[in-house]
Write a structure and sequence with these properties.
Elements: H1 2-13, E1 42-46, H2 66-69, E2 77-81, E3 85-87, E4 90-93, E5 103-107, E6 115-117, E7 123-126, E8 129-139, E9 146-149, E10 160-173, E11 184-187, E12 189-195, E13 198-202, E14 211-216, E15 219-224, E16 227-229, E17 234-239, E18 242-248, E19 251-253, E20 258-263, E21 284-290, E22 293-295, E23 299-304, E24 306-307, E25 310-312, E26 315-317, E27 324-327, E28 332-333, E29 336-337, E30 345-347, E31 350-353, E32 364-366, E33 376-378, E34 380-384, E35 401-402, E36 405-407
Parallel strand pairs: 1-2, 2-5, 3-6, 4-7, 5-8, 6-8, 7-9, 8-10, 9-11, 10-12, 10-13, 11-14, 12-15, 13-16, 14-17, 15-18, 16-19, 17-20, 18-21, 19-22, 20-23, 21-24, 21-25, 22-26, 23-27, 25-30, 26-31, 27-32, 30-33, 31-34, 33-35, 34-36
Antiparallel strand pairs: 28-29
């Protein structure tokens, strides 16, 4: 099966005749950010035994709180939080670094992550620019773990921009009985990076709608090398006019109803940019889900009013109801019309499932008001563990281009018995530089 799938992916990567989309070259290297290679020019220390009144932020006289440490902060400064437990509701406004001199809020180098615990939200940041948050644990909040927004300046694309979230462990958000409590929530944030972090137990359950990483009206971002498990509604969601985002090389394990929600349903006033009557609006556009591993969960991903979005080179193991979904949750809001889910690409994926688990009669669920006929389904491998002779995908409502599939041949994974469903990164299987699965095991 590997040799056959490798040949199919090779032809996809090299392109094909006609207008059928092709896979681009891919590596598993971490994304490059504005903060790479940069070090702070000054450091302000925060410890559990510090003093906001008598301290000066030096190592010998540290502050007690992050809020005090960021007062009058200048570009190039790092707020270094030492190991220990700190109270939540850390509110930070208008922290502005520069491309050459960012601002860092980070756990102390060489120490265990400091834990910010409790509060309505762990950290709430408004209108930041060139900011790095790294090596932190956020836990047990009543609402979101970290919330970053543009201060409702929905027409200002520069209000919240250039943010790195790295080496974070955010878990057990949403202890209040109602509302949506994401582990990491963004609104109107542009040019962001979520790297090598972990998001678990985000939200109280599927009715709450919470996800590990949620973005409303976010643009030009990357979610890479991270792990999502046991979340409420799903692992990742981008909606509200979100566009041009890569979700690459992550691991999703029992991550809820939708591992990645490409689009969704958003209230009228939350769109960035604002809605227009001049042309159809969209919930999301050009969201690229690539080289991830999905284990369990109701479905790996859902195209929900997403235009020109794709799902490529992923491994989907044991979904409990559908492999994928194509839906439209918003057709119009008042006089504002929305483009349907359309022009999706599903290429080069391995679907490893139990026929008895999937929703009878529909492996890719297609809802009303969508344009599944504009989708392309090509060069995927399908294997039903419990019924290999029934591996052929069942697609009664999918009317897109179904070109070349591999069915009924058992795939080989890196360590199936250990739950590692990555496809081996060998030149014989896949073209050099175009591996199937970048995600690290849990």
């Amino acid at each position: 099966m590997l040799a056959v799938l490798g040949a199919l992916l090779s032809s996809a990567c090299q392109g094909s005749s006609g207008t059928m989309p092709s896979l681009l070259p891919l590596t598993c290297d971490p994304p490059k950010t504005f903060a790479d290679g940069k070090e702070p020019t000054s450091v302000r220390h925060v410890t559990t035994g510090g003093d906001d009144d008598a301290g000066d932020g030096s190592e010998g006289r540290p502050f007690r709180s992050v809020q005090r440490a960021v007062r009058d902060i200048t570009p190039g400064t790092a707020v270094q939080i030492h190991a220990g437990v700190y109270d939540g509701d850390v509110a930070l406004t208008a922290l502005h670094g520069t491309a050459d001199a960012p601002i860092w809020i980070r756990g102390a180098v060489g120490e265990a992550r400091p834990t910010i615990r409790n509060g309505n939200q762990g950290i709430y940041i408004t209108r930041p620019r060139y900011l790095v948050l790294e090596h932190l644990e956020i836990a047990d909040t009543r609402d979101n773990g970290i919330n970053v927004d543009d201060g409702e300046l929905v027409e200002n694309a520069d209000a919240a921009r250039f943010i790195v979230f790295k080496d974070l462990d955010i878990h057990d958000t949403g202890r209040q009985p109602s509302g949506i409590a994401d582990c990491l929530k963004m609104a109107g944030v542009n040019d962001f990076f979520v790297i090598n972090s972990r998001f678990r137990h985000c939200g109280r359950g599927p009715d709450g709608g919470a996800v590990g990483v949620g973005g409303v009206g976010t643009h030009h971002g990357v979610v890479s090398g991270s792990q999502f498990s046991d979340d409420g509604f799903g692992g990742v969601q981008f909606k509200g006019g979100a566009s041009d985002i890569e979700v690459i090389g992550n691991r999703f394990e029992n991550a809820g109803a939708r591992g990645v929600n490409l689009g969704g349903a958003t209230g009228r006033g939350a769109f960035r940019p604002p809605l227009t009557v001049e042309a159809p609006n969209h919930e999301a556009a050009r969201i690229h889900v690539t080289a991830n591993v999905f284990v369990g969960g109701e479905s790996a991903a859902a195209f929900v009013g997403c235009v020109d979005c794709d799902f490529t080179r992923n491994t989907v193991a044991f979904p409990s109801r559908w492999a994928l979904r194509i839906l439209q949750e918003t057709v119009a809001i008042s006089q504002y019309m929305f483009a349907p889910a359309s022009n999706g690409v599903i290429i080069g994926n391995a679907f490893h499932f139990r026929r008895s688990d999937l929703n009878a009669g529909e492996d890719i669920n297609v809802g009303a008001n969508t344009e599944s006929a504009s989708f392309t389904l090509d060069k995927n491998a399908w294997y039903a563990v419990d019924a290999p002779d029934r591996s052929q995908p069942v697609l009664p409502a999918f009317h897109g281009a179904t070109i070349e599939q591999v069915t009924g041949a058992k795939p080989v994974f890196v360590n199936e018995s250990g739950g590692d469903y990555r496809v081996p990164l060998t030149g014989e299987t896949f073209p050099p530089g175009a591996p199937q699965s970048c995600a690290a095991p849990m």
